[in-house]
Design a protein that fits this description.
protein biosynthesis; about 260 residues; Peptide Deformylase; disordered N terminus; two-stranded antiparallel ribbon; globular; alpha+beta; 7 helices
């Protein structure tokens, strides 16, 4: 999506996007004034050590600056998932004007979300995760994933096949206030997981990709998925709800081999 489209999406959602652009300056020499004019002041550069971190940072920054000049950075919606640290993941997403759901801009965001979700084989994704601060979530639990789970895991987690579901401006209502603990991961915190409490049963209501009213009562693992994605719309990550002692690098054992 080009800058014009993003500008339109943000106007539709009454959101704003702040951009900053800085250029590095290069020190080429020095001069001092004299009565006869200017005299060049020599500048001596020490030999770089084998571990010259500071020099490497300057070189990389300058190369990145040149790259941005040749190839401008892409604009949201991204074909990748934003990672923790990106301000968009900690922002309150804006409501979508229902009249704009059928617009090419909003449909483009939804299409990108689904494409990224399926490519990464994840079960849910929110618009902020592709860089767009709008209240849109998508989820899907295909047959293929269900077949990869053991019968015991299916029963324990409450797994069930779910078709693609899109919710625009979703609201959540808790149906069963009991919480269950399971390990959770997130594409925006790549490579890590933790135990997170979630409500057993919830109801989500909103609009679908056709701007039609929809309501869904769900329990088990799909309920966990929708709660996880709804958190993204409010600038929350599972890091804010997890048992910190259970936070692990998924590949920690590999690092010891």
């Amino acid at each position: 999506m080009n800058r014009t489209i993003i500008s339109r999406v943000l106007r539709l959602s009454n959101g704003t996007l702040g951009l900053s652009n800085s250029k590095p300056s290069l020190l080429t020499g020095g001069a001092t004034a004299t009565s006869s004019g200017y005299q060049l002041t020599p500048i001596f550069f020490p030999l770089a050590s084998k571990c010259c971190y500071s020099s490497n940072v300057r070189v990389r920054s300058y190369l990145q600056y040149i790259k941005r000049k040749i190839q401008p950075p892409t604009c949201p919606p991204y074909n990748h998932v934003c990672q923790v640290g990106d301000p968009v993941l900690r922002s309150q997403a804006a409501d979508v004007d229902p009249a704009t759901i059928s617009s090419p801009e909003v449909q483009g965001v939804i299409k990108t979300m689904v494409k990224v979700m399926r490519r990464l084989e994840c079960v849910g994704l929110s618009a902020p995760q592709v860089g767009v601060p709008l209240r849109i979530v998508a989820l899907e639990y295909p047959v293929k994933m269900m077949e990869e789970s053991s019968p015991a895991s299916r029963e324990a987690r409450g797994l069930s096949v779910q078709p693609l579901r899109i919710f625009v401006n979703p609201t959540l209502r808790v149906l069963d206030g009991r919480t269950v603990l399971f390990q959770e991961a997130c594409e925006s915190i790549s490579g890590f997981s933790a135990t997170v409490p979630r409500y057993l049963s919830v109801e989500v209501s909103g609009l679908n990709e056709k701007a039609e009213p929809v309501s869904w009562q769900v329990s088990g693992w799909p309920a966990r998925i929708i709660q996880h994605e709804m958190d993204h719309l409010d600038g929350l990550l599972y890091l804010d709800r997890m048992d910190s002692k259970t936070f692990i690098n998924i590949k920690w054992q590999t690092h010891n081999e």
